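WARN retry 2 of 3 for item q-0093 after timeout on previous attempt; input resubmitted unchanged.
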Amino acid sequence: MQALFIFLGGGLGAVSRWGLSTGIQTLAEKTLLHRFPLGIFACNVLGCFLIGCVFGHFTQKHPAWLFPFLVTGFLGGFTTFSTFGKDTIEAFQDGFTAVALANVILSVILSLAAVWAGMKVCAA
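OK item q-0093 returned
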């Protein structure tokens, strides 16, 4: 049964990531941030905040389906380390070293801060 929850959550998370990241990146194309992978960056930081909220709120009791569906499935599909890696390497290869370094530094620092903030904001 857990595999079904992960499957359903993962599909919903991936589609949500695609919609949000595509929308944000489309908006960014008309700005100075058009070279920065802002859509994936936003999904990863938001996903980190949400996982912090889940772990901050559900420290003890939670329904058995919650973590497979929401954490492993939805948030696992919503966030993406592989696309972060691809975007960073492409920026390096295209000669946008500052963009690549900014992506690495901002993604790591803000994602960790987002998990911490989510845990604090949603503490049970």
